[in-house]
Write a structure and sequence with these properties.
This protein is α+β, with helices and mostly antiparallel strands. Helix content is 20%, strand content 32%. Strands 20-21-22-24-25-27-28-29 form an 8-stranded antiparallel beta barrel. Strands 2, 5, 6, 8, 10 and 11 form a 6-stranded mixed beta sheet that branches. Strands 1, 3, 4, 7 and 9 form a 5-stranded antiparallel beta sheet that branches. The longest helix has 19 residues.
Length: 678
């Protein structure tokens, strides 16, 4: 028979020392023992009689030594058979020097309370004074009932130490399990512990200890990792308020030579009826030895996180200053293009000589001998007198709606610097045993959001897709990452960044359709369509060939294609590839329901670098990101889940004063300091 019918080990599954009261006054122990129990002599050989116990006064003895320490002598766990007695000894030291003449108090603790007598088991004394070797001892005299308890030894100047004591019939064996977990605050760490990802308070706050026959530890740990039901345990003892001190379960009255897999699992107490999630586990095979209490220390290791999957992610960057000051040829070309539109939207009074300036920019692109340059240089002034009739009111200074379009386009670079994208991060594999994640994780940006600050007429927030939603690689990069606790580090990686497409998209997919009615139902208006619509081609053609038709005319056949080529080709040159645009980052992973599956990416920070040439000084910028598991979740819903206590949640760019948020209409809006004023 492996178990006695009246087994009482369940009574002592928990040793809650945090809630213990101060030791009782030093009175003689009143042994409450059944009459039929025959006990041996109750005076320990090495203990000092209670009435002879003299405590040295600290003040008379000078300053107390620093860092007093109690040390257990011998094993921490012990098994005592009915009617027997056993001596327990501690040593009081400081800086490896023994301290004699100090009182040590001894207390039996069970279920968080002090006990004088447990089923006839009692202590020979409640205190003893350290001898010349710094030793103090107490005897435990066993009754005749199965029980387990914790024997505490304490000095007023030290932390207490504890013996795990079991009383059982002769021939029975015990297994005392201590489930160690090194939590996020590094509480509960012992030799061999790795710092875990959870905290005791509210996260890994209970444990289960199991002894299971006829099972291998590998199979049990695999079942725990996979969330499968465990085989029928011989016995299970809960550790309800699991922490660094309350971590012991005692299995008593076990038959000699019985073999068990001893499994301990740390859990989150969910409070529902579906079972509490397993977070960490450890296992060891043990053979029971009759007459002994085997102490099994199990260091619980975190179970693997399931990160694999696709996450909808919002990214924010502020590139305004770095783009304005970056000495890069492609960016200079874009600046020249934007200068064309600034000059188009500028009156003669504000920008004298603008006609020659625009023609000169066109000639830079095509060459001085190109037909477009040779054709329009002689008539530049006359050309802009014609355009002014379209761009400005009769006073020659008040811009029309068309002139405002050109003024807005001239601000495109500033707008694109304050950049927000919606995309996906896909982890194609889970972390390995070392927390490493393969280099095929993918970050792809698929949608561009922006808010206009200057000269915006109304409804200044817009978004558009970057290429095809599925599989777009215009803005994308693959990366390697590593996991430490719940913090993920994204390693430095190159990122394809076709920035010119964003600039073109802003004007063609938002600005032009807002101001120009081409008569079609298209939501996109190209540069060429815009120029055909706004330029007074009939008057421009009259400068050179009045009788032309269609593409044979100088305006439709030369000027519009030339301006379109300058704009689109120069802007499309602006893209960063290879090692030019690089990102690295850090983000907190959130397992909201403790099922080991990541739900949110929270508080992500991007560290960006722009570098042109190996010897060039890298230019750094920051960004932020947050996201949610699942491809189909809306970004507004996502951010309210990630930041549930924030009215208008959003990630925050490190070091940036600007803060954006998602409003109730799922639009990106600025705070009051950046609001557009009519």
């Amino acid at each position: 028979m492996m178990k006695r019918a009246l087994k009482l080990s369940f009574l002592a599954g928990l040793f809650a020392c945090l809630g213990c009261a101060d030791p009782a006054p030093d009175d003689d122990v009143d042994a409450e023992v059944d009459a039929h129990v025959v006990l041996p002599d109750t005076t320990p050989a090495d203990s000092t009689p209670e009435d002879a116990d003299v405590e040295v006064d600290a003040e008379e003895d000078g300053d107390l030594p620093e860092r007093w320490e109690l040390q257990i002598q011998g094993r921490e766990g012990a098994l005592i058979h009915y009617g027997q007695r056993m001596t327990f000894t501690v040593k009081l030291t400081s800086a490896k020097q023994v301290i004699p003449g100090r009182k040590i108090k001894f207390t039996m603790l069970q279920d968080g309370s002090e006990k004088d007598n447990i089923f006839g088991t009692y202590l020979s004394t409640k205190s003893a004074t350290t001898n010349d070797e710094g030793l103090a001892s107490v005897d435990v005299i066993a009754g005749d009932g199965d029980t387990t308890f914790r024997l505490e030894a304490r000095n007023e100047n030290t932390a207490p130490v504890y013996f795990e004591v079991a009383i059982a019939r002769e021939g029975a064996g015990l297994i005392t399990v201590r489930a160690h977990y090194c939590d996020q605050n590094q509480r509960g760490c012992v030799d061999g512990s790795a710092v875990g990802r959870y905290k005791f308070e509210g996260q890994i706050n209970q444990a289960q200890a199991h002894i299971i026959p006829n099972m291998s530890c590998d199979a049990l740990l695999r079942d725990v990792r996979d969330g499968k039901p465990l085989p029928q345990a011989f016995e299970t003892i809960p550790i309800k308020d699991f922490n660094e001190l309350n971590n012991v379960a005692v299995f008593s009255d076990l038959d000699n030579q019985a073999e068990f897999a001893v499994l301990a699992v740390g859990q989150h107490k969910s409070g529902d009826q579906t079972g509490d999630p397993n977070l960490a586990a450890a296992c060891e095979k043990v053979t029971v030895v009759g007459g002994e209490n085997q102490l099994v220390d199990l260091i619980l290791n975190d179970l693997p996180l399931q990160l694999k999957g696709t996450y909808t992610v919002k990214n924010r960057f502020n590139l305004t200053q770095i783009l304005q000051n970056l000495d890069v040829p492609a960016l200079k070309h874009v600046a020249r293009v934007l200068e064309i539109f600034r000059l188009f939207g500028c009156s003669n009074d504000e920008c004298p000589g603008r006609a020659d300036d625009i023609i000169n920019i066109i000639c830079e692109f095509f060459g001085e001998n190109a037909s477009v340059c040779q054709t329009f240089k002689p008539v530049a002034s006359a050309l802009f007198r014609i355009l002014d009739g379209v761009l400005f009111e009769n006073d020659g200074a008040t811009p029309t709606a068309i002139a405002k379009v050109f003024q807005i386009i001239s601000d495109v670079l500033n707008i694109a610097g304050d950049m927000t994208t919606i995309g996906e991060i896909e982890f194609r594999s889970n972390p390995d045993a070392n927390g490493e994640i393969a280099e095929d994780s993918d970050d792809r940006w698929q949608q561009f959001l922006f808010t206009w600050h200057n000269n915006c007429p109304s409804d200044c927030t817009r978004s558009f897709s970057i290429g095809a939603i599925e599989g777009s690689r215009d803005m994308a990069g693959t990366f390697k990452s590593s996991l430490s606790g719940m913090n993920l580090k994204v390693e430095d990686h190159s990122f394809t960044f076709k920035y010119g497409k964003i600039l073109l998209g802003i004007v063609e997919k938002w600005v032009f359709p807002r101001f120009i009615d081409t008569g079609s139902n298209s939501t996109e208006v190209s540069f060429e369509e815009m120029l055909e619509h706004v330029l007074p081609c009939e008057k421009i053609n009259g400068l050179i060939n009045k009788d032309c038709t269609g593409d044979d005319c100088i305006c439709q056949g030369v000027l519009i294609p030339a301006l379109t080529d300058v704009v689109t080709q120069y802007i499309e040159m602006l893209e960063f590839e290879g090692k030019q645009f690089r990102l690295s980052g850090d983000v907190e992973l959130v397992d909201d329901n403790y099922d080991l599956k990541i739900d949110y990416l929270k508080g992500g920070v991007w560290h960006g670098v722009l570098q042109f040439g190996e010897n060039a000084v890298p230019l750094s910028f920051n960004g932020c990101f947050a996201g949610c598991s699942g491809k189909n979740i809306g970004i507004e819903e996502c951010l309210h889940l990630v930041y549930p206590n924030v009215t208008k949640p959003d990630c925050e760019i490190p070091g940036a004063n600007q803060t954006k948020s998602i409003d109730d209409d799922d639009e990106l809006v600025e705070d009051d300091s950046y609001a557009y004023e009519e």
